[in-house]
Amino acid sequence: MLTSYLEFAIKTARQAGKLLVFLQPSFRQAKTKSTTLDLVTKADYLSEKLIIRNIKHKFPGHQIISEEQNSLDNSKFKIHNSYFTWVIDPLDGTTNYSHQFPFYCVSIALVKNNKILLGVVYNPNLDELFYACAGKGACFNHKRLKVSNTKSLNKSLLATGFPYIIRESPGDNFRNFQNFCLNAQAIRRAGAAALDLAYLAAGRFDGFWERELKPWDTAAGVIILTEAGGKATDFKNNKYNLFLHREILASNKYIHQQMINLLNDK
After folding, report:
1. Does residue 218 surpass a pLDDT of 90?
2. Greater confidence, 161 or 72?
3. Residues of CATH 3.40.190.80 domain(s) within the chain?
4. By C-alpha distance, which of 208, 237, 236 is closest to 222?
5. Beta carbons within 10 angstroms of residue 66's beta carbon
6. 3-state SS class at 243
7. How far apart are CA 243 and CA 52, in angstroms?
8. CA-CA distance, 257 to 244, in Å (whole number)?
9. What's the pTM value of the predicted model, to 2 decimals?
10. For 225, phi and psi rounded to 5 degrees?
11. 186, β-bridge pairs
12. pLDDT at residue 165, as a whole number
């Protein structure tokens, strides 16, 4: 049953990605959603419209949580856990997109009873397709994915991001960033959490952490990571909950405790 859902998600992600690439030259300008630095372009809305139209046509009884049509407050999501729920980010990396920096993606996941059943992350610029089904492993362009086997934080390449509310948030990530800079091999901050998680699943990164994330930022990436052998928790090492946690620590599992120690180093 999940296979048909996955095939649908892959086809839809590819369609949305193709649309984003086609539209990008026309959408250099973006507007902010609020007084924060959170940007949105017309391309976000058009990609979302395409994905939602496909879902409603194919699965009219399913619920949808999408970045552009839902509240930014996780506590306000009104969903029935027993229903199939699509969690989508039609354009993860909008700031990159609006500046024509080619690191952005489409993210689509299917959730039921608080369990992520499948996830697809598609980077249309490089035609990189990452996907996974629960219990079936993860793939990159139809080849099996596996996390890195790096066991030392000192030899690890990490990824992170900074929240859009960075100017007023106490969880601005600067202290953590400094600590990891001094204890890891290097850090990258590319600006698309779903793609960061997919790259972690592919062994390109060894660890990732970020604050103030929403379900659409992480849903697809988390199942791709865990199905590739990785681990996802909050900063206290509690199993990551898509609708509960606003912070995530993800890794190849080997350096997880080392990252936990640094994140909680006061």
Report:
1. yes
2. 161
3. 153-263
4. 208
5. 21
6. coil
7. 21
8. 21
9. 0.91
10. -65, -50
11. 157
12. 60
Written as six digits, the tokens of 258 are 């080392």
DSSP type of residue 240: P
| Among the listed residues 93, 91, 253, the one whose alpha carbon sits nearest the alpha carbon of residue 189 | 93
Tokens standing for residue 141: 């362009």
Tokens coding 35: 């007084």
DSSP string, 13-79: HHHHHHHHHHHGGG----EESSSSS-EE-HHHHHHHHHHHHHHHHH-TT-EEEETTTS-S-GGG---
d(CA 166, CA 172): 5
Which CATH class name applies to 153-263? alpha beta
Domain with CATH 3.30.540.10 in the chain: 2-144
Alpha helices in 111-173 (DSSP H): none
Task: Select from 61, 63, 91 the least CA-distant residue to 77.
Answer: 63
With H, G, I as helix, E, B as strand and everything else as coil, classify residue 245.
Answer: coil
User: What does the alpha-carbon distance between residue 223 and residue 240 come to, in Å, rounded to a whole number?
Assistant: 11
Enclosing H/E stretch for 179: helix 174-183
- Directed axis angle between helix 193-201 and helix 215-227, to 10°? 0
pLDDT value at position 7? 98
When the candidates are 2.60.40.10, 3.30.540.10, 3.10.580.10, 3.40.50.300, the CATH number that belongs to 2-144 is 3.30.540.10
User: What pLDDT digit, counting tens, does each position of 95-121 carry?
Assistant: 999 989 999 999 999 999 999 999 999
Other beta carbons less than 10 A from residue 22's beta carbon: 12
The pLDDT tens digits of the residues spanning 112-152 come to 999 999 999 999 999 999 999 999 999 999 999 999 999 99
Chain length of the chain? 266
